[in-house]
Amino acid sequence: MENIVITAATPDEIRSGELGRQLRHYIYGFVGEYPEQQYIRLNARDGNGRLLGGLRSFVFLYWLNIDVLFVEADVRGSGLGSRLLAEAEQQAIELGAANARLETFEWQAPAFYRKHGYEEYARVDGYAPGFFLSSMKKSLAR
Predict the structure, then answer these.
(1) C-alpha distances in Å from residue 38, one per residue of 60, 64, 95, 124, 138
(2) I want to staple 64 with a disulfide (CB 3.0 to 4.6 A). Which of 6, 31, 47, 92 is the partner?
(3) Which distant-in-sequence residues (6+ apart) come within 8 Å of 101 by Cβ?
(4) Which tens digits make up the pLDDT trace of 17-69?
(5) Which domains does the chain have, with CATH numbers?
(6) Cα separations (Å) of 65 from 5, 11, 62, 138?
(7) Which pLDDT band holds residue 91 (cuts at 50, 70, 90)?
């Protein structure tokens, strides 16, 4: 283990995907082959092109992983968040996802996600000073 140097990955190294391929092949030994990670990236704009919200997620190992779901304050309560979530879940199902997961702070949207069938499976109290981070999941089976 001598002479090992740790450096920041270069943009070319990141683009190559070599590290991800090595990890994927290692995981294959445990769970068998699975499709490569697929991204679902949605935007919602009004007639003037204003970005009202969007969703960023990916499907990995048959799970929809929601990273970001955001809706501008002046259109919250209009159903836009529900529409974005439903569209991402439908696309994920088409990509083979059987479940979905996400994390949300208590001041964000745990109640919104519960309304849509998500359940909390873990919580980190004090993740942000005075606030918990909730990990939530949902079966996408219909």
Answers:
(1) 7, 9, 8, 28, 19
(2) 92
(3) 63, 64, 65, 66, 135, 136, 137, 138
(4) 999 899 989 999 999 998 889 999 999 999 999 999 999 999 999 999 999 99
(5) 35-139 (3.40.630.30)
(6) 33, 24, 9, 11
(7) very high
Hey, what amino acid is at 116?
H
Q: Which amino acid is it at 111?
A: A
Phi, psi of 15 (to 5 degrees): -60, -30
- Determine the Cα–Cα distance for residues 118 and 85; give it in Å rounded to an integer: 11
